[in-house]
Amino acid sequence: MDHDIHKYFESAVPLVKQVGEIVRENIYKEKTVDLKESRVDFVTETDKQVEEILINGLQSIYPNHKFIGEESTSEINKVKLTDDPTWIIDPVDGTMNFVHSNPCVGVSVGLYINKEPKVGIVYLPVFDYLFTAIENEGAFMNGNKIQVSKVKAFSDALVIIEGGSSREPAKVDCMVENFRTILNEAHGFRTSGSAVYNITSVASGGADCYLEFGCHAWDMAAGATIIKEAGGVIMDPSGQPFDIMSRRLICASTEELAKEICSKIKQNYPKRDDA
Description:
Structural class: alpha+beta
Largest sheet: 7 strands, mixed
Radius of gyration: 17 Å
Order of helices and strands: HEEHEHEHEEEEEEHEHEHEEH
Helix content: 25-40%
Distance between the termini: 29 Å
Number of strands: 14
Shape: globular
Oligomer: single chain
């Protein structure tokens, strides 16, 4: 079956911009918060509203497409990715930030076909930054082409690392050790609290590497296309090929940088999204 990728992309962008307005309007208002899997993993009414608008809007145009959304998927606790065109949606990436009125939040929509990333759309509504990418056509921010830095050495790199939402002792120990390694070896480090903010930072040259254990498919789907099209690399932190269901990623400006960091960090293996 032939797929009109540009048509899919052009259908999604206005919806992403539309729901971005909702996020921007609500970020400084009082929120209703429901806990999910832990005290630092939760959902707001805005997450649910945005996801519903995105899925309903795209489903009305493409009734045969599949959907994986953070909030709808969390109810069944298992993700299934097929070869069918599948929209993978994070309605408000950086919910902790959103609850605290921190502006590092984003709407993320990725399209996978045959289990491969084809389209990535990330909107950071408070900053009005729209990142877009279509396979083999480059990556853009607000229509301007972006690219990764050329940093190859760990010692020269600004590295983003996140603790994630798990507070299991083994995960905490792993992250503390990796924070120490990065603090000692990198040029500097950052933590924003939003996977899509981090990936687009690397894609646009504002950071050189981003590492996380415990993120989900919806955190990475759009970013996988954007980072690749910006000239960067995305892989498993073990150095193996990227697996969107693994809940593990490292993305970097160069393969040399990614592999050097992979060789020096402690590994953690959270439960897979499809397990």
